[in-house]
Design a protein that fits this description.
- The structure is a homodimer.
- The first copy, chain A, has about 140 residues and is mainly α.
- Chain A is built from 6 helices and 3 strands.
- Chain A is about 60% helix and about 10% strand.
- In chain A, a hairpin with a 7-residue loop joins strand 2 and strand 3.
- In chain A, helix 2 crosses helix 5 and helix 3 crosses helix 4.
- The longest helix of chain A has 21 residues.
- Chain A is globular.
- Chain A binds a DNA duplex (30 and 30 nucleotides) through helix 1, helix 2 and helix 4.
Chain lengths: ~140, ~140
DNA sequence: GCAATCCTGTTGGCATACAAACGAAAAGGT
DNA sequence: ACCTTTTCGTTTGTATGCCAACAGGATTGC
């Protein structure tokens, strides 16, 4: 008497994560079309922490070296950040917000918070808190 | 007396989702190096539902037309799926598992379930169930 | 002081993802 | 029958996201 194993895709964490992420990205793109989620994360961390080396910036935004480079390049092209060599360490590239980048983040920060709220909207306040706690533990 | 608004990146759902997804993908790649998560999802749905049109396959795996095409192309190149024209509807391309694809999914299905379990490992059984329920409601 | 190691940024390659635009085929309405 | 609308698959373009390999600079061990 053995139960035949079934693989229900809809019940797998990975699939659920992907679907929820898709919904979140849709909400984000509608609300903040100027930049992407990862670009916004970079603006947020530069705003909170000040200028950082490119690799350090990658660490605080959870992107590896190759990824953060692409993001920084595109933000530079848009004039939202700028890079300068670090005199202390000639390997390092310091990334900082431009006036335009500072202004954009200031103007869109509240929208950013609203996007998170909207993503969690189907849940009650208690459920939202629980979800965030559980997700944080899976990090 | 107004509270200055802060944007704590680490507390935003989108950022948490991205980090948890990163951890999940790492676990998956180690356990099943032959295919990616999305490719595995395609194999799972073809295994569960039988041959499907390419677009239909995209819907049951949550991928848009452009994405599912790339995934099917790569799986075809690996000999895990094959496509054939649908005589009923000349626009349609029927995608089905090859013997090799069927065998691979059968051999890796349990591992797939173990990957989900490993991803959720930091949580208790009750917390795991709760998380899945909450995520499903955000779909 | 110097060799082994580590860190930083860059590049190339592969694999999602989605938008937009397109042609061909099917379905529906009148 | 005919026209409009959908659906299906394709292609192009942009943006993550990771790995692996690399070069040059900084650090550490000895």
């Amino acid at each position: 008497m053995e139960t035949p194993l079934k693989y229900a895709l809809e019940d797998q964490v990975g699939f659920l994560l992907r679907r929820v992420t898709q919904r979140h990205l849709t909400i984000f793109n509608e609300a903040i079309p100027e930049v992407t989620t990862t670009q916004f994360a970079v603006l947020a961390q530069l705003s909170a922490l000040g200028p950082l080396s490119q690799n350090h910036l990658g660490r605080v935004t959870a992107m590896d070296g190759a990824t953060i480079k692409g993001v920084v390049d595109r933000l530079t092209r848009q004039g939202l950040v700028e890079t300068s060599p670090d005199p202390e360490d000639r390997r390092r590239l310091t990334v900082s917000l431009t006036a335009e980048g500072t202004a954009l983040f200031a103007a869109r920060m509240e929208t950013g918070l609203a996007i998170s709220a909207r993503t969690l909207d189907p849940l009650t306040a208690a459920e939202q808190a629980q979800l965030l706690t559980l997700l944080a533990r899976l990090t």
